[in-house]
Amino acid sequence: MSNNRPTILICDDSLLVRKQMRDCLAECGDFNIVEASSGQSSVELFRQHNPDLVFLDIVMPDKNGIEALKEMIAIKKDVKVVMLSSSGTRSHLKAAMEAGASDFIQKPWEKSQIEHIVRSLF
Amino acid sequence: MFSQYFGNFLLNKGYINAGQLTDALEYQKSVHLKLGVIAINAGYMTPAQVEEIHNMQKKVDKRFGELAIEKGYITEAQLNEMLATQKQGHLMLGQALIDRKHLTMEQLQEALESYKKESGMSSRQYNVVQKDDSEQIGKVFQNFGETLLGKMYSDYVTLLIKNIIRFVDDAPIVEINQMKSDITAEWYTSQDIGGKIVLHTAIACDKDRFLTLASRFAKEEIKEPDELAQASVGEFLNLHNGIFLVNMSNNGVELEMQPQQVKQNHTYRNPGKAYVVTCHMTWGDFDVILA
Q1: Cis, peptide link before residue A108, omega less than 30° from 0
Q2: B1 band by pLDDT with thresholds 50, 70 and 90
Q3: Which of B257, B258, B261 best probes binding to A when mutated, by most A CB atoms within 10 angstroms?
Q4: B189 and chain A: CB distance < 8 Å anywhere?
Q5: Which has more pLDDT, B100 or B234?
Q6: Which of A21, A44, A119, B141 could form a disulfide with B146 if both were Cys (CB 3.0 to 4.6 A apart)?
Q7: DSSP letters along A58-87, please?
Q8: Number of A:B CB contacts under 8 A?
Q9: DSSP code string of B103-169
Q10: What is the pLDDT of residues B119-141, one digit of tens each?
Q11: Whole-number mean pLDDT of chain B?
Q12: pLDDT at residue B2, as a whole number
């Protein structure tokens, strides 16, 4: 993206979740929004757009969010990746934190949580 | 069962972060629930009164309940009631968070009040509803000859009812039957769960029910069974299954979900051991398949 707005990558296979996230982020500020609907396209779009923040689902087609997270961290070590999943099991929480996730939001998320994360970064 | 609900609530409201929740859930396995936390949850004592009793216990060799009665903060009947509720899941998590210093007594009190308000009932009512539902549903599965799996199915269906109330804003009357033949549905939304236990879960319904369910979950009117409608019903199933997996994880059973799939005019072949949970809503019926 050529402008100076921060870029946020939303990775979720659900169109509804992406739409709700996009609407929420539009209320939080002025961002370039990029959307991915699978684990594989998440990593590809991450490479392509070098986002400042990533919201990453865990259960996705092609590649799960934990694998995608590891690849993103390998590409850019200090990237801010917030896991956004309905499946906040012990193993997922542990795997996400160990792989370098910045935070873990259990679905259903609330606008205030997204706002808090975005405002603390930008 | 509700410890994860409460954990999610604390996480989502920003009372704690993910690392603190992970730490507390781990610590919760060995936690001993103290009466002070139960008293605050029940509204019998304030955090300051609990602290006062804790300080008194450093000086006199008496139990918490005994001192609280002496000070007139609780009655003997209330103490007995508190002792009987020492295994409430969400309170165990609350105790773990206090022990690990992730929350103060005051913060826990505030969180508990907010949690009860949001759930629309007191935690005691919450537990009664849970207990009654679980027992009744558990009996149904016992009638089918299910013993070990019956508990899991029963938990699944109890949680399903709560999630329909919570996310679809309608209270269902459920009817559980063993699947006797193949099921053909105009819209079939499924998600497979794997790990120690393999489960096939699905929502089967006609177009009108599909659109109503999609609209109610998305909180916007959806008129066509397009990608948004499919994403909405799929996400409801995904959200419900995700919470179920978290509950199972808290009981030491780690499971994995596959991405959900939506099919039109699909026939699900009866695998021989499957259940159909018919949810009677004010706006029509839909079936949840559990196999």
Answers
A1: yes
A2: very low
A3: B257
A4: no
A5: B234
A6: B141
A7: SS-SSS-HHHHHHHHHHH-TT-EEEEEES-
A8: 93
A9: S-HHHHHHHHHHHHHHHTS-HHHHHHHHHHHHHHHHHHHHHTT-SHHHHHHHHHHHHHHHHIIIII-
A10: 554 444 444 344 556 667 777 77
A11: 84
A12: 45
Which among B7, B238, B248 has CB closest to A86?
Answer: B238
What pLDDT, on a 0 to 100 scale, did the predictor assign at position B144?
75
Q: What is the predicted pLDDT for the residue at B110?
A: 87
**Lowest-confidence range among A46-55, B13-22, B48-57?**
B13-22
Query: Is A112 in Cβ contact with B22 (below 8 Å)?
Result: no
DSSP chain B: --HHHHHHHHHHTTSS-HHHHHHHHHHHTT----HHHHHHHHTSS-HHHHHHHHHHHHHS---HHHHHHHTTSS-HHHHHHHHHTTT-HHHHHHHHHHHTTSS-HHHHHHHHHHHHHHHTS-HHHHHHHHHHHHHHHHHHHHHTT-SHHHHHHHHHHHHHHHHIIIII----EEEEEE--S-EEEEEEEEEEEEESS-EEEEEEE-HHHHHHHHHHHHTS---S-SHHHHHHHHHHHHHHHHHHHHHHHHTT--EEEPPPEEEEEEEE---SS-EEEEEEETTEEEEEEE-
Please indicate whether, in this complex, the C-beta atoms of A60 and B259 are within 8 angstroms of each other. Answer: yes
CB atoms within 10 A of CB A5: 14
